[in-house]
Amino acid sequence: MTQAKRQSRKLGWRFVVLGVAVIFLFLALVRNVWMDVYYIPSESMEPLLLTGDRVLVSRVAFTNRAIERGDVVVFDGRGSFVPWNSGAGDVADAIVGAGQWLGLVPNDNIYVKRVLGVAGDTVKCCSASGLLEVNGVPVTESYLYPGDDPSALTFEVRVPQGKLWLMGDHRNVSLDSRSLLGAPGGGLISTERVIGSPIATVWPLGRMHVLEQASGSGKNTAGLP
User: Fold this and answer.
1) Distance separating alpha carbons of residues 100 and 126, to the nearest angstrom
2) How, if at all, do strands 110-117 and 188-190 pair?
3) Predicted TM-score (pTM) of this structure
4) Where are the domains of the chain?
5) Which Gene3D superfamilies does the record cross-reference, listed alphabetically (predicted)?
6) Do 81 and 205 form a contact (C-beta atoms < 8 A)?
7) Which CATH number is 35-214's, of 3.30.70.270, 2.60.40.2470, 2.10.109.10, 3.90.226.10?
8) CA of 38: how far to CAs of 32, 151, 174, 199, 217, in Å?
9) Distance CA 124, CA 145 (A)
10) 36 vs 28: CA distance, rounded Å
11) Are 194 and 133 in contact (CB under 8 A)?
12) What are the C-alpha distances in Å from 172 to residues 109, 119, 123, 155, 179?
């Protein structure tokens, strides 16, 4: 092999590596600024989201509007739903992290729930008719999993500034704000922990569709006052 051919092959590989690096950096930029993909690990948001769904999440859904009752949000549960992890990590953690970044395995720190109360709201369950109440108004929750009651646990909370009260649509199996009533913070999640809103299911192929109730359109389609 001549010197010219060897140099040409080296240049070719360098262009390939450079191209892969540019694509990776572009994807990283998109996923950290505009869109991301998350794996749904549980039944807590059925029937809207099913176990194993991969959802496309808009990180800019709430850039130009406030989070509203009825919005479905993806959020970082560290410090609330899960304790802070100060471990240094290892190779196994790095591999798992790569799988989470690719949307192939669930991220135990990330949750998706529906907003039932925003700052200033009083959320109570249940009313005399067995419904959730927000600011004294009974709520008809059309998105609930068939057969589920609004809540088997009775509660009444006042949502302070900068916080949200979140619950899953499949109430009987959902770990949500109700589960943390006795914990520090009382089950209330900081708005600063919200990553964005799921706008579409992208996998499996047979489940690909736009999530109208969670698209961040600003329209309240959840039957909340």
Assistant:
1) 37
2) unpaired
3) 0.75
4) 1-33, 35-214
5) Umud Fragment, subunit A
6) no
7) 2.10.109.10
8) 13, 27, 18, 11, 20
9) 19
10) 9
11) no
12) 21, 26, 18, 15, 12
Which amino acid would we find at residue 164? L
> Tokens at residue 172, please?
């009987």
Q: Is 113 a catalytic residue?
A: yes
Are 112 and 105 in contact, with CB atoms under 8 Å apart? no
Q: DSSP assignment of 108-160, as one string? A: TTEEEEEEEE-TT-EEEE--TTS-EEETTEEE--TTSPTT--S-SS-EEEE--
Question: pLDDT (tens digit, 9 = 90+) per residue, 60-106?
Answer: 889 889 999 999 999 998 877 765 444 444 544 444 444 444 544 45
The one catalytic residue among 42, 113, 177, 215? 113
